[in-house]
Specification:
By secondary structure, the protein is of the alpha/beta class. The chain folds into 2 domains: 2-146 and 308-339, Medium-chain alcohol dehydrogenases, catalytic domain (Quinone Oxidoreductase, Chain A, domain 1), CATH 3.90.180; 153-285, NAD(P)-binding Rossmann-like Domain (Rossmann fold), CATH 3.40.50. The protein is built from 12 helices and 18 strands. The protein has helices spanning 39-46, 49-54, 97-100, 141-145, 147-157, 174-185, 198-206, 221-227, 243-251, 273-278, 293-304, 321-330, and strands at residues 2-6, 14-17, 27-36, 59-60, 64-72, 84-87, 90-91, 111-112, 124-128, 132-134, 167-170, 191-194, 211-213, 233-238, 253-261, 282-285, 312-317, 335-339. Strands 3, 5, 6, 9, 10, 17 and 18 form a 7-stranded mixed beta sheet that branches. The longest helix is centred in the middle third of the chain and has 12 residues, at 174-185. It is globular, with a radius of gyration of 20 Å. The mean pLDDT is 96.
Amino acid sequence: MKALVKAKPEKGLWMQEVPIPEPGLNDVIIKVKKSAICGTDLHIYMWDPWSQKTIKTPMVIGHEYMGYIEKMGAGVTNLKIGERVTGEGHLACGHCRNCRRGKEHVCENTIGIGVNIDGSFAEYVRIPSTNVIPLDHRIPDEWAAIMDPFGNATHTALSFPLLGEDVLVTGSGLIGSMAIAIARFAGARFIVASDLSDYRLAIAKKMGATMVINPAKGEKIADAVRKLGMRGFDVGLEMSGSPKAFIEMISNMYNGSSISLLGLLPSNFEVPWSEIIFKAITMKGIYGREMWETWYKMEQMIIGGIDLNPIITHRFPIDDFQKGFDAMEEGNCGKVILNWD
């Protein structure tokens, strides 16, 4: 079968022929129809320091996709051949303390599809049946292919109540813009988004932002607070990983507010702890999707009418994958879909 392989420890990906995987006792083989490029895939493509420490070459990468069940192991009884599905990309062990208390998303032995084992940038992908997500017929194929990052956005945005609240999103990239749509869907009052890219801020507006801020142009979050007549933000969604954005967020949070942290902040910057403490700010680190409550909420929001179309900006046949990664590297894009049809 064709697959995108990180064949060598250098920048790039290579389309290669690899064996079609066979299912184990409790495994499912999915014939992939659509894939999406994740920021993680871009890191692997670029071969940055994280990738050099994490990825063992050669490896089939990718973990955002949808398709149809082609084969199943003899132990799989709850699914059927031909079923339209996607999959949760974190494989939990099922035995550690967190798994046994219903917190599989923080399993101490997590394995990532397309990171630790062969992934879904291929004609076929193998995953455990427990990780298969059957798709409601009302979920479009393209949206199904991006449910993994939509889940990150859902986990981040819905970690704190949003109804009637004022929300600040620092970093309105792909996941940040989806979080904006979720906050709007969940009944937030004002949603302010900041980013250094006007292209991405335009998407943020389409996804429901009340106001957008570009710090590169000298615009400040405090100006938005003043213009909208707020005392500060009730909920912060930190998606940028930028110390400057985080410090500006803290400065503009209301007393007793809450912050979800998805962006990876560097460890060597001075955190404004005194302001966090005296404002009594609650902070929560976000990793992946809560399994499986996040998936339920994602499905219900899609069925309920949330619109993810503005986030998808580029579509390419799989043989033109390089064009997709070029667009991601340039940064002037939303979500990139690769079609296997």
